[in-house]
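tool_call: predict_structure(chain=1)
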Amino acid sequence: MLYDGCIEDSNGYYNEAYKIILGHDEDNSELPQTYKEFKDYITEQFKLHGSYYKSKFSSKVPDSNDGTLFERYLLISIKDILSTERWGYERYGVNSASRPLDFDLSIDLSKYQDITPFQVVFFVQQHSG
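tool_result:
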């Protein structure tokens, strides 16, 4: 579930730190196996790491000036409403998509009842490649 999640960051590069904590890009990343150890590990790591500062001329540098991951929303997609792809050489300009409201927005929240606190929100997730 956490591998499908992301940090609400509005291009703040918090997700780079999030992926490193979960070992997204490492084949042999060992995360704690018990619930308590995992919770303690994630809480500690989220309180230690913030976003990354990036510029055209430098590599990414850790930066906690705007707060840590622990202070931001962890977003888990539980129902996809719309999906589009944007590709090509040019990333400037307008990109838009729409669909009629002809689908069921209801979701079963009972399986999330043990996670507190949680809030159901709509969010836009964009990947760049």
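agent: Residues 35-48 form the longest helix (14 residues). Proceeding to next step.
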